[in-house]
Amino acid sequence: MRTARPAPAYTVVYDGHCRVCNKLVAALRKWDRREALEIIPSQTPGLDTRFPWIPERAFTDSMQLVRAADGRTWEGAAAVEQLLDVLPRGRWIAWIFRVPLVRGLADRSYRWFARNRYHLGCGEHCRAHPRPGSE
After folding, report:
1. In angstroms, rounded to a whole number, what is the distance separating the alpha carbons of residues 116 and 127?
2. How open is the CA angle 128-131-133, to the nearest 5 degrees?
3. Cα 118 to Cα 129: distance, rounded to the nearest angstrom
4. What H or E segment, with its residue span, contains residue 64?
5. What is the pLDDT of residues 79-119, one digit of tens each?
6. Are 103 and 97 a contacting pair, CB within 8 Å?
7. What is the chain's alpha carbon radius of gyration, rounded to the nearest angstrom?
8. C or N: which end of the chain has fewer Cβ atoms within 10 Å?
9. To which H or E segment does residue 104 belong?
């Protein structure tokens, strides 16, 4: 007799068009041995209805992490930090966010990555998102 799996405790919403993001999501899936995460692309229809408190632009700007129990939402580097706390293997590196100045550096680095993700070796996909001034 099979028992029903519990619902995932968190939902990760990421840019499904970004190859770098998809590679990172593949790693997340491997790390998520307890199946605590539901991982869905931001292009999934109905996200605005499911998560009405998250502005549509936020899905474009950064990864979103939503806790199922109460709807608490983290984005960008804060979502990465929370994910590291949730995932068993992540705890080995989550301590780094407790080092002074790391949170600020992580926020700036994440924002840079998010702005430039289509230009970081995406190949064919990058043609759909040309660099400003390259047209």
Report:
1. 13
2. 125
3. 6
4. strand 64-67
5. 999 998 888 877 788 878 888 888 889 999 999 988 888 87
6. yes
7. 16
8. N
9. helix 102-116
- pLDDT, residue 29, reads 93
pTM flag (> 0.70):
yes
How far apart CA 3 and CA 57 sit, in angstroms, is 39
Structure tokens at 39: 């991982």
Report d(CA 35, CA 87) in Å as an integer.
10
Cβ atoms of 12 and 39 closer than 8 Å = yes
pLDDT of residue 133: 46
Q: How many residues does the chain have?
A: 135
pLDDT one-digit tens code per residue, 21-74: 898 899 999 989 889 999 999 999 999 999 999 999 999 889 999 999 999 999
How far is residue 110 CA from its own chain's centroid? Answer: 11
Burial of 116 (0-12, 13-18, 19+ CB in 10 A): exposed
Q: How far apart are the first and last CA of the chain?
A: 60
| Cα separation, 75 vs 86, whole angstroms | 15
For residues 117-134, average pLDDT: 57
